[in-house]
Amino acid sequence: MLSELQNLYERNLFESVIPFWLRHSIDREHGGFFTCLDRTGAIYDTRKYVWLNGRQVWTFAKLYNTIERRPEWLDAARSGAEFLRGHVFDEQGRCYFSLTREGQPSFYQRKPYGAGFVALGFWEFARASGEDWYRSKALELYARIAEWIANPSLLGRSPLAGGTAMSNLADIYILASLALEIGDSAMLAKCLQDIRLHVDPGTGLLHETATLDPGLRKSSPDARLICPGSIFEIYWILGRALRLCPDAEAEALLLRALDAACELAWDTQFGGYYYFMDIDGRPMLQLESDMKLWWVHCEGIYALLCAHLQTNDSKWKTRLRQAHDWTWSRFPDAASGEWFGYLHRDGSLSHSLKGNNYKGCFHVPRMLLYSVLDLRRANQH
After folding, report:
1. Cα–Cα 20 to 30 A to 269, which of 71, 212, 232, 244?
2. Burial class (CB in 10 A: 0-12, 13-18, 19+), 8
3. What pTM does this model have?
4. How do beta strands 225-226 and 209-211 pair?
5. How do residues 96-141 score in pLDDT, each as one tens digit?
6. Under 8 Å between Cβ of 262 and 213
């Protein structure tokens, strides 16, 4: 099975997914990347979404650094990096969320995540290009992101009287992702400690937003929110952190969370993983909660592969085959390349687009790339 997956993922990555983005997304005139692409790659919105541009810089630079030093991959990464360098920062050093095609500010989102992916892209591009400015800027952003998370008022999001103090799984994700690239073991140890705030003691699931007051743990839909894709993603990211910061208790709770998410989120009627769920099965505020999304299934496949390679437990191999088969029969588009992103609950196509302001060149190629690298190592033994 593992050799079969390796061959399939290599072909899909190098013959379908990456060629699609190389052909259609690069703005040869102004630099940067278009991400709003229809099924065939035609552009339907010329705005440049900052976090997706940072992610795409990372993708092409990572391919260059880990697979082969192809000039076309470095050139693509440079197009995005230089566009961001010239246009993404406001006068206070914060990042816009979207820009016009030419680079004028279009929208500002008062969250740190766009800056996080700019930093990831810059760090990987610095490794590929050897240009110190990008490395220094990535480190500067990394420090500022930690400050913005600790004090959201720096981004114009001051605490409100009726607000509830929360720990966000996305904050742990972005800090751990950057810390892994940079090699900050102290931050990784902190993330492994902070993840404990999110554990539901009864089920082992990880709350998407964990109230800091235990008495409010399930007091609202936000506090009860479970995002299976986030659990899949945080599982393998913090699994990598454990290599630098061994923590047997954290390792066990992460494996339990993955197990619980697989059990809760698999749709026993139609197959596939739900997008959002309420931990108590109560009504959801997210009307799209029962949809099946590309990134959730990408993260599920890679998390299950990691669990299988880590434990050699047949349970994970069975789940990996189940997730792979369901995903592969619905998301990849053999006709036009890349993957569809959005399915109805029954697995039928909801939208035929290949990219928008949330879907870009990241989750699919990252899953395929990391799976290929891990499978190559596993299949050599």
Report:
1. 232
2. middle
3. 0.96
4. unpaired
5. 999 999 999 999 888 999 999 999 999 999 999 999 999 999 999 9
6. no
